[in-house]
Write a structure and sequence with these properties.
This protein has 238 residues and is of the alpha/beta class. 26% of the residues lie in helices and 30% in strands. The two termini are 40 Å apart.
């Protein structure tokens, strides 16, 4: 059974004051915590063997999910010291032996997405790299029209308020066990591990997707989404 790691150990400082009493993944959306949506998406795509990295207010997560049987999955916990956070990559090092047998996923416990994770996993299995990153395609409209010049500084074209496309690291990763050769204690994936892979000429593949994805990073994002889901729940109960 393919394993997936859910990173839940952060303190969620950007979501204060809500996260003073709850870890960010346990903030409610309607009647359920964010993390339950994450677990359900993994389960829906066949990933039922889960490891959760926990630290800040870990009891809230562990008491709610237990061994996972209530949710149709199997859950184990990787516990880190809140005083010495291990960061995203460092937090999975204690599971090195358990994750050495096959490809595994890593996802964030506070991101929502409708991405087909099985499709993402299958894509990775066809690539030569030891890591594949899910990249969310986004577009940012510019406020002004853009002029394009030729080599003689003559205007040759205007683009009126063009949309600049970017590919966002969505925090959804597929790894081969060899990734552990490049992870050190207290490493962060984006800041340390991925640059190290590129430095060592290792291949990192990208999987571009347009499905729904949201990092609930601001109180306004959370309040708006919670209100929307709470309203839907209320309508469905009538």
């Amino acid at each position: 059974m393919t394993k997936a790691v859910i990173l839940c150990g952060g303190m969620g400082t950007r979501l204060r004051p809500y996260t003073y009493s709850l870890p960010k993944p346990m903030l409610p959306l309607g009647k359920r915590p964010i993390l339950e949506f994450v677990v359900n998406n993994l389960k829906a795509h066949g990933f039922k063997d889960l490891l959760m990295t926990v630290g800040y207010r870990k009891e809230e997560i562990m008491n709610y999910f237990g061994d996972g049987s209530k949710f149709g999955v199997k859950v184990k916990y990787l516990i880190e010291d809140v005083e010495k956070p291990l960061n995203t990559a460092g937090s999975i090092l204690p599971a090195k032996k358990e994750l050495q047998t096959d490809t595994f996923l890593v996802v964030m416990g506070d991101h929502l997405t409708s991405l087909d994770l099985r499709k993402f996993y299958d894509y990775h299995k066809k690539t030569p790299g030891i890591a594949t990153l899910a990249l969310k395609r986004t577009g940012v409209p510019l406020e002004y029209g853009i002029a394009h010049l030729d080599k003689d500084s003559r205007i040759i074209r205007f683009d009126e308020k063009p949309i600049v496309q970017n590919l966002i690291n969505a925090g959804i990763y597929a790894f081969e066990p060899k990734i552990f050769d490049y992870i050190r204690e207290y490493d962060d994936f984006a800041k340390n591990v991925f640059p190290r892979l590129l430095e060592k000429k290792q291949i990192i593949d990208g999987f571009v997707f347009d499905d729904y994805w949201l990092d609930i990073g601001r109180t306004s994002d959370y309040e708006e989404l919670n209100q929307t889901i709470s309203t839907i729940d209320l309508v469905l109960r009538k």
